[in-house]
């Protein structure tokens, strides 16, 4: 996919969860568009693989536990110390849990909340002042599950709803300082998090039934809208949660017959 229409040459971008799935596609898209990219997550080897083939002077794999505020602050210091600025932050790292709420262990909930909500809290606290200095912006990866309910996903949906309204409220708070804050909202996407669903036609059929474009999403479908929201083409766009869902959220919930 050609991302040449977005030119991020000279921009410093920090991407969380940038070593796999949607985050990997976003990382590669920004690199192809000329950006200097720092990626973070827990698996250093995946971060290094994501940046493989690009010049060391404009890449930085920095492992960190994003649920730890001190580690997030240290991560941001490393990026700014090395590259001198921070222009774009993509908050993508996320976890997933499913099942009845009565069967979700307390430590599972704590981990899900720490990964999906606490990490975003720490990330915005550490990066927004730098984005105000550069006139930069933040793009979060939320989910259509943050806008509506799903069966057996109450905990996950609650965390994504938190991100969606974090984005809207922070956009109001930081707009006067020149910082734009937006989100993309994917639906079912073929990533490591969804491998348990299977990849055969039969197991995918219930999901595809709800998708207007007739196929599951792929990470490469999400990356271009993220680049758009981060680019000057969206300079008057803030507080937006953009569905990137193949038309899933256009439905009332009735099955396709």
Comma- or semicolon-separated keywords:
alpha/beta, Rossmann fold, 7 helices, 41% helix, globular
Write a brief structural summary:
By secondary structure, the chain is an alpha/beta fold.
Task: Give an overview of the whole structure.
There is one protein chain. The chain has seven helices and seven strands, in the order βαβαβαβαβαβααβ. The longest helix has 29 residues, at 106-134. It starts with 11 loop residues before the first strand and ends in a 13-residue tail after the last strand. It has helices at residues 21-32, 44-51, 69-83, 106-134, 154-174, 201-208, 219-230, and strands at residues 12-16, 36-41, 59-63, 88-91, 137-141, 180-186, 241-244. It has a single domain, classed as NAD(P)-binding Rossmann-like Domain (Rossmann fold, 3-Layer(aba) Sandwich), CATH 3.40.50.720. It is an alpha/beta fold. α1 (21-32) packs across α7 (219-230). β2, α2 (44-51) and β3 form a beta-alpha-beta unit. The model has no long low-confidence stretch (mean pLDDT 93). The protein is globular. The protein has a seven-stranded parallel beta sheet, with helices on both faces.
Write the topology of this structure:
Layout: E1 12-16, H1 21-32, E2 36-41, H2 44-51, E3 59-63, H3 69-83, E4 88-91, H4 106-134, E5 137-141, H5 154-174, E6 180-186, H6 201-208, H7 219-230, E7 241-244
Parallel strand pairs: 1-2, 1-4, 2-3, 4-5, 5-6, 6-7
């Amino acid at each position: 996919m050609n991302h040449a229409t977005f030119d991020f040459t000279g921009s410093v971008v920090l991407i969380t969860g940038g070593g796999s799935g949607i985050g990997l596609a976003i990382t590669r898209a920004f690199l192809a568009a000329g950006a200097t990219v720092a990626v973070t997550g827990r698996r250093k080897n995946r971060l290094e693989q994501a940046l493989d083939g690009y010049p060391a002077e404009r890449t930085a794999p920095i492992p960190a536990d994003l649920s730890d505020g001190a580690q997030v602050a240290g991560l941001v210091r490393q990026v700014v110390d090395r590259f001198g600025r921070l222009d774009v932050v993509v908050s993508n790292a996320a976890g997933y849990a499913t099942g009845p709420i009565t069967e979700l262990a307390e430590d599972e909930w704590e981990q899900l909340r720490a990964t999906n909500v606490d990490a975003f809290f720490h990330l915005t606290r550490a990066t927004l002042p730098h984005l105000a200095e550069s006139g930069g912006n933040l793009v979060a990866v939320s989910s259509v599950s943050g806008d509506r309910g799903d069966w057996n996903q109450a905990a996950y949906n609650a965390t994504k709803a938190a991100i969606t309204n974090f984005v809207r409220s922070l956009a109001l708070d930081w707009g006067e300082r020149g910082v734009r804050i937006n989100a993309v909202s994917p639906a079912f996407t073929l990533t490591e998090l969804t491998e348990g669903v299977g990849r055969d036609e039969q197991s995918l059929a219930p999901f595809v039934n709800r998708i207007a474009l007739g196929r599951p999403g792929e990470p490469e479908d999400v990356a271009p809208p993220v680049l758009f929201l981060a680019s000057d083409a969206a300079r008057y766009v803030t507080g937006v949660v953009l569905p990137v869902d193949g038309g899933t959220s256009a439905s009332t919930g009735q099955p396709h017959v």
